[in-house]
Structure formats: C-alpha cells, structure tokens
Request: fold
Amino acid sequence: MDKEKIIEELKKIIDPELYTDVVALKLVKDIEYNESGQVVSLVFRPSSFLCPLAYSLTFKIKEKLMLLDGVKKVDITVENFIKQDDLNKLLKE
Reply:
C-alpha cells in the first residue's frame, strides 16, 4: 500500500455539488499509511464551513478506503466545518 493508491481511491469520490473529486478540490491533506497498524489517516476539509455534504463525504471517504487491501482502520480528522467536533466524535465511535 502506498500513498498513490490511496489518492487514486480518493479521486473516485466526487463532490456532487461541484462535480469534482475531493483530491482535485484539495479537500484532503496529510494522507499517511501506517503499514504495521494498517491504518490510513488523513485530514478532510469540507468545501465550505457550512458544507451540507460534509457528513456524507466523510463517510464515503472512510468507506472507500476501508475497501483497500491492507487497510484495517481509517482515521479521519475533519477541520474547518461548523460541526467538526460532532463529526470527529462520531468518527471515533
């Protein structure tokens, strides 16, 4: 597993309001893969502070990356979103 494979999967996630993938929109950053723990971690910044699709996009990212061989856990931190604390808490459950 390498960062490029993760990025390729993320490119398949399209923001339905902007018709562009989350990578091209620069909505994901700090992508890392811990091989020993088989964990992908990244930061997701929705396209706006009030983004109505933040929850659905976050869970699409998590779902898509969990399907990759060698990934057992996906840690996403959401930033720059009005309900980021609630969403981050939900992601930890």
The chain has a mean pLDDT of 95. The chain is about 30% helix and 25% strand. The chain has one domain: 3-25+34-92. Helices lie at 3-10, 54-66, 84-92.
